[in-house]
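Fold it.
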Amino acid sequence: MKIKAPIKFFAGRSSYYLAEKIAKSYGTELGETSVLEFSDGEFQPAYLESVRGCIVFIIQSTFPPQDNLMELLLMIDAAKRASAYKVVAVMPYLGLARQDRKDRPRCSIGAKVVADLLVKTGVDRAMTMDLHADQIQGFFDVPVDHLYASSLFVPYLKMLELPNLVIAAPDIGGSKRANAYSRFLNAEMVICYKLRKKANVISEMKVIGEVKDRDIIIVDDLIDTAGTICLAADMMTEQGAKSIRVAATHPVLSGPAYDRINQSSITEVVVTDTIPLKGHSDKIKVISVADLFADVINKVYKYKSISSNFIF
């Protein structure tokens, strides 16, 4: 009988807060690592315990700065060179995922570059959550477990028992996600139509659908500067919406995001802990993804189906 390879969990520095919760939920502890830092900013991660013959799960979201991605790549390489049996990159948030196509001449496709780097470095499997576009899974030449925060958000939204619930897509590209939520919550859907003159700057926005006297839930994969959701919320409030909430997986929250949220008509912003919050707002509620990732890791390790973890 074949002996199953032991499993070990490790974390990059930027996601240690989340990795500890995932390991605890799984019923184990994080392995020990160290990072040697040089005066010029260069760094070298290393494992302080043997990983020979182990299935190694490395937990690290790759949000900016890009040192987080580089650290993950170096940890993958170190594990492979230390004779790990398999290496799985657990990236609750995959950075550069918004660069999923050539949307203007002579530009890069950053998500494809990241996938190639991970595969070339030696990762055997990738695990992530709410990619900006589902097709990014096809950029990887290894299996990808793509989880959805809807399995966490939908139960919470049902618990609110909002009487006149309407799901809103912040743009045309988010209509598929909004439609899925509307089906599971048995609610109507509206779509916000926006025009951009440049990145992070919206020149015009309109809403398609009825929002008067409705409790609106805007769903999205991430919140960056919060310009879109705050403009949409204020616009729908002016049109008579009863309340506005936002459910977004990744709290990027850069630039003026916190000020915009605090000053907007939004009642509540529900996010996950795939990215640590950089600021504070009484309007922001965080739901942890730790138990979900721990459960999926356990099923992947035991070669069990993970389809029950999906709502979409």
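The chain has a mean pLDDT of 94.
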